[in-house]
Design goal:
The chain has helices spanning about 75-85, 100-115, 130-135, 165-170, 185-200, 205-210, 210-230, 265-270, 275, 290-300, 335-345, 350-365, and strands at about 5-15, 15-25, 30-35, 45, 50-55, 55-60, 85-90, 120, 125, 145-150, 175-180, 235, 260-265, 305-310, 385, 390-395, 410-415, 415-420, 425-430, 430-435. By secondary structure, it is an alpha/beta fold. It folds into two domains: about 5-50 and about 380-395 and about 410-435, Urease, subunit C, domain 1, CATH 2.30.40.10; about 55-365, TIM Barrel (Alpha-Beta Barrel). The mean pLDDT is about 95.
Length: about 450
């Protein structure tokens, strides 16, 4: 494997920015210091004027393979991810067939080992009747990121509304439980009421169908189960201000048993944007009124919300067309989360150090990922070089998603991802890919 030294770069890591060289050797970070001496076989990269971030770890993506590969594949979406500085991902089980058995889950790992340019892990799916199968992953806790429970409807047979099933999984799971929290009864009642009142629904009705109350009530139920059994609970894509009262910043992340995630689209868009983007930003849980976005920002910065993710969920443009019932929910975002947060940095909303914390350090801590998420000697060299003096505009010509579009088209990003290293391999450099080495299966430091 090629060795590299990145010279004179601003290293963004563990709450500080320092000017250093970084030596990458045998896939690991060998040394972080000033003026590192190297041999002639080490490739030098000039980092002057640029920033080095730990690779982004995205704990929630939908890469659509198997069964929905017209929307995306593990290869296409992981390729887009590394171009955006995402070096590791955790993918959801609502593919076809749903990943509801160990055998189906391991098939996804097999595909990823052959095709993914990023490091990978996959959630075990839960249904109302597969609790025994789910709990088999207690024996695989060092090799699987967690259990996923949809407490709102999803693809296939993945809505879990049987309290006996929920009770058993929360009581007996020894791994992290990640939940999509929306109350299905509230959603159905809201939909029927609006349908009776209006007939045809519009994009701006989506946050009224999937409203704040539906999110809060479902999150509250999940937290009650977790507190009852001291389960390790991680609530995904918080979209309401009201839910934030359920979380704390009074204890360190490593000691938390209940954690929360914010997604880049809930930090960026509000219900005002339906006028401009329509169903392109229809997603579950819905993008809601502006006060919710402001509440999420506040909670992210004061550490009630622990991590940032994308919930990357590609659909064909034809699948995003009206009527309301036809327009699929989900946004393709995994190519641009770091650049999007750098946009917010330029707007004065967040520091570079906080971006590294919420997109890398905290994700590694939250999931107990082994030897990743930080720029530390001995850790895997999952690294991203950013040039904040080189803005770029998102366009169809530079989008790598298989679906071929983004809700961010036309947006100027304040910086460019120039290099992405995955396990010390320069997989992406100045617009060029080296696909000769694939990513690795994530490992977890669980007892």
């Amino acid at each position: 494997m090629q060795n590299y030294v990145i010279r004179n770069i601003q290293v963004v890591n563990e709450g500080r920015i320092s000017l250093n060289d970084v030596l990458i050797k045998h896939g690991r970070i060998e040394k972080i210091a000033g003026n590192i001496s190297t041999d002639l076989l080490t490739t030098e990269i000039n980092g002057e004027g640029k920033y080095l971030f730990p690779g982004v770890i995205d704990d929630q993506v939908h890469f659509r393979e198997p069964g929905l590969t017209h929307k995306g594949t593990i290869h296409t979406e992981a390729k887009a991810a590394v171009a955006g500085g995402v070096t590791s991902f955790m993918e959801m089980p609502n593919t076809i067939p749903n990943a509801l058995t160990i055998e189906l889950l391991e098939n996804k790992y097999r595909i990823a080992s052959q095709t993914s340019l990023a490091n990978y892990s996959f959630f075990m799916g839960t249904s109302n009747d597969n609790a025994e199968e789910v709990l088999k992953i207690n024996e695989l806790k060092k090799d699987i990121c967690g259990v996923k429970i949809f407490m709102g409807a999803s693809t296939g047979n993945m809505l879990v509304d049987n309290f006996l099933t929920l009770d058993k999984v929360f009581r007996e799971s020894e791994v992290l439980i990640a939940t999509h929290c929306e109350d299905e009864k509230i959603i159905k009642a809201n939909y029927q009421r609006l349908k009776n009142e209006k007939g045809e629904l519009s994009p701006s009705d989506h946050p009224l169908v999937r409203d704040e109350e539906g999110c809060f009530e479902s999150s509250l139920v999940a937290i009650q189960f977790a507190k009852k059994y001291n389960s390790r609970l991680h609530i995904l894509h918080i979209s309401t201000e009201k839910e934030l009262q359920l979380f704390t910043n009074l204890i360190p992340l490593k000691d938390k048993r209940i954690t929360a995630e914010a997604c880049v689209h809930h930090l960026t868009f509000s219900s005002d944007d339906y006028k401009r983007l329509g169903y392109l930003i229809k997603c579950n849980p819905a993008i809601k009124a502006p006060h919710n976005r402001e509440g999420i920002w506040k909670a992210l910065l004061d550490d009630r919300i622990d991590v940032i993710a994308t919930d990357h969920a590609p659909h064909l443009l034809s699948e995003k067309e009206p009527p309301y019932e036809h327009a699929h929910a989900g946004l393709p975002l995994v190519q641009h989360p770091l650049q999007l947060m750098l946009h917010h940095y330029k707007q004065g909303r967040i520091s570079l150090e906080k971006i590294a914390e919420k997109m890398s350090h905290a994700v590694a801590d939250c999931f107990e990922i082994a030897e990743r998420g930080y720029i530390r000697e001995g850790y895997f060299a999952d690294l991203v070089i950013v040039d904040l003096n080189q803005p770029m505009t998102v366009s169809k010509e530079n989008i790598l998603y298989k679906c071929g579009w983004s809700p961010l088209e036309g947006m100027e990003m304040p910086g460019t991802i120039t290099h992405t290293f995955v396990n010390g391999h320069l997989v992406y450099g100045n617009g060029n890919f080296d696909e000769s080495v694939k990513g690795q299966r994530l490992k977890f430091n669980r007892q």
